[in-house]
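Hi V.,

You were right to ask for the full record rather than a summary. Here it is.
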Amino acid sequence: MRNMLKAFVGALALMAALPAAAAPESVAVEAVTIRDDDVFYGAADAKVTIVEYASLTCPHCASFHQDILPKLKEGPLADGKARVVFRDFPLDGLALRASALARCGGPDRRLAILDLLFESQASWARSQDPLGALAQIGKLAGLKEEQSMACMEDRGMFDKIIAEAQEGEQKHGVRSTPSFIVDETLYRGGMTVEEMTAVIDTLAK
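Predicted structure:
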């Protein structure tokens, strides 16, 4: 299991090593099936579902969550036009453990923990003791340190996260972060508020 995990995360890191595109690349893919355990920003009955594949150590993903997502929350998400479903696509071992920490709080706290992780990414991802720094973020979310540490070494949790990423890669063509799947189109690379809003408006008609 350890070798398989290392090989998979290593392969993802190599795929993500390409420079970010100036504009998002769009390709036709199979639509994503939304699961009961998915977490999302916005209303469950929103007209348009955007599936975001992200790595918690990806700076472009952090930029989306800090700069783009808040504006979407004030616009199409607040209007019930769209929701953003979060899917894990860890690009390294630290991102994998951060994803496990976010899941440790359960579905009710997961989005709040994800927000904290993206907001403070520059700090914990560069820390000399990144697991300790992650555990401190867990404390802010109401998790005990021993609980956070146990989650960040939970092989069963790792299996679920890796399976989610593998589905994104093998079934939907995800190979870098952030990637967004809207209906049957995969957008690779960062999208501006205007670009994403235009896609939502077209599909929400």
